[in-house]
């Protein structure tokens, strides 16, 4: 069994079903947006108010329109989220090789935290083709500054108990490279690598991806919560994969728990 598949352990409460906010995470070219779009289409048949985040963020428009949409989101919603402001502050402190990289890192974190603030404040459900994990991955890929660890801990500590569903898209780097090469757009920095840097950077990209999933689970354990992670194969047919995600989302999860005494966490005992 994949180490990031959904599991239940005694003494760990399952993250509450609320919303939900479903976010995809994977290497560039792994198939995140393709599957996320199909998932939204399938779920919106019975959930007409379900939001597809790329549409909200103007991802179908030009670069200027996308930036304007995201900036408007930040200005209107980041002020309502103390955790979001803390995350942005930490991102600003991280050294980056270029000023452009720092701007992208801060802007990416601010956009995701603002988006979460709007969705959660208004009680909205959404499918995100990339979310907080992707933004953290991007920040770490651009720098080796130790300050990244503080940013990751801060963000994941606040994210672990939110009830979000994380869909991890696992696709070999070679397939991702081929898919990116076939694209006309060049949004990912991994599309612009020279041959000498490519293998080393892709290896680090995959290492960081797996490390973030482990960090998310570790943050969950600290809060007595098991983050809900669904692992999919990015090389299989997108329609079949989408059906598998829907089936897992609709599972009656408590029915699959082993019949063992449930030990309350310290937080639960305090609430009782």
UniProtKB/TrEMBL annotation:
Region ranges (Disordered): 249-272
Transmembrane residue ranges: none
InterPro entries: P-loop_NTPase (IPR027417)
Comp. bias (Basic residues): 255-265
Protein name: AAA family ATPase
Source organism of this protein record: Thalassovita aquimarina
